[in-house]
């Protein structure tokens, strides 16, 4: 049985759980945690490499970014924080009010984690405004020889999750205009495209 087939048993449950989250209109933290748990199980069955393609194919209503947030919310450490006595007020706020998943995740952070997030955001802002580093010709040549999976695996082995999340956001910002341009090009008939060139 292939890895993709192993994950297929989770598809109906995941899609049902997602519908429950949508119907709850953002107010049920429990349904979001259940969805995250199912996504975590499916990802474990499918594997890290083919996960994104599997998710797009079998659960097209759930974006990769949203899936990551649900999965993080269902992380055992975050669930533990909800049940700790020191976080009882936090748990009451989360389960009893309408709150986005990102806000809920932020509420689950300890003061130290919030401070780290602020510092990371400040570093990223400083890096955005700084001049981008130049890449040596040797590095460019080596990167051109790698396929996408090799680059991804190298990034995962080298950097922490916070850096990878930030990288994903920055790539999305830079790729959005390119993807929009490609879509615009597809709407022009081939005969007219030749004339425009």
Q: If you had to describe this structure to a student in words, what would you say it looks like?
A:
This protein is an all-alpha fold. The protein folds into two domains: 1-108, no CATH class; 135-197, no CATH class. The protein contains 13 helices and no strands. The protein has helices spanning 3-8, 11-23, 29-46, 51-58, 64-73, 76-83, 88-96, 101-108, 111-129, 137-145, 148-158, 161-187, 190-196. The longest helix has 27 residues, at 161-187. The protein is globular, with a radius of gyration of 21 Å. The protein starts with a helix and ends with a helix. Mean pLDDT is 75; it is low at 192-197.
Highlighted features:
197 residues, globular, 13 helices, disordered C terminus, 2 domains
Helix content: over 70%
Mean pLDDT: 75
Total helical segments = 13
Number of domains: 2
Q: Any low-confidence stretches, pLDDT <50, length ≥5? A: 192-197
What portion of residues belong to β-strands? under 5%
Distance between the termini: 49 Å
User: What general outline do the C-alpha atoms trace?
Assistant: globular
Structural class: mainly alpha
Computed Rg:
21 Å
Main sheet attributes: strand count, strand direction, barrel closure: none
Count the beta strands: 0
Element string (H = helix, E = strand): HHHHHHHHHHHHH
Task: Describe what is shown at a glance.
The protein is an all-alpha fold.
List the helices and strands and how they pair.
Layout: H1 3-8, H2 11-23, H3 29-46, H4 51-58, H5 64-73, H6 76-83, H7 88-96, H8 101-108, H9 111-129, H10 137-145, H11 148-158, H12 161-187, H13 190-196
Helix pairs in contact: 2-3, 3-5, 5-8
């Amino acid at each position: 049985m292939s890895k993709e087939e192993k994950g297929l048993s989770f598809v109906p449950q995941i899609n049902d759980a997602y519908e429950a989250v949508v119907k709850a209109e953002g107010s049920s933290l429990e349904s979001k945690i259940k969805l995250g748990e199912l996504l975590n199980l499916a990802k474990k069955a499918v594997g890290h490499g083919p996960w994104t393609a599997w998710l797009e194919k079998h659960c097209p209503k759930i974006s990769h970014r949203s899936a990551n947030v649900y999965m993080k919310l269902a992380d055992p450490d975050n669930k533990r924080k909800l049940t700790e006595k020191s976080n009882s007020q936090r748990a009451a706020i989360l389960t009893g009010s309408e709150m986005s998943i990102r806000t809920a995740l932020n509420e689950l952070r300890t003061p130290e984690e919030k401070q780290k997030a602020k510092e990371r955001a400040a570093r990223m802002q400083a890096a955005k405004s700084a001049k981008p580093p130049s890449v040596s010709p040797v590095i460019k040549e080596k990167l051109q020889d790698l396929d996408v999976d090799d680059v991804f695996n190298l990034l995962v082995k080298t950097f922490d999750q916070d850096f990878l999340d930030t990288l994903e956001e920055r790539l999305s910002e830079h790729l959005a205009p390119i993807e929009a341009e490609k879509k615009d090009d597809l709407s022009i008939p081939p005969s007219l495209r030749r004339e425009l060139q």
